[in-house]
Amino acid sequence: MEVKPTEEFFRKRPVFPVSLVKPYFQTEEGKFPSRKKMLTPPEIVEVEDYPGPVSKIIRARKIRLNGKDQRQYLVRFKNQRADKDKWLAEDAIPDGSLHLRIFRASRRTEHSDQ
């Protein structure tokens, strides 16, 4: 506890009245004001949950799982609607190296055209 009374207060009273002291409880937001609230990371889909072969990779994102950054890709499956798209880790994408190469090449051409 830290008390910063004014000079005038000490001229009138040489001691601080303990009855005015109240306990201070610091909340988690108070301890870490710049910390953002963590969202629950999305579940990674297991291989048997795939609705079919991969058509293309649409987007990429980086999330934090267990204290480590992990890149995930939004995968669209052949003959499936957009609501069936899934976020998958790089190593969980069937034929991932081929689809990732195509995805990265398309992103390079998009950025160079602008």
TrEMBL record:
SUPFAM superfamilies attached to this UniProt entry: Chromo domain-like (SSF54160)
UniProt protein name: Chromo domain-containing protein
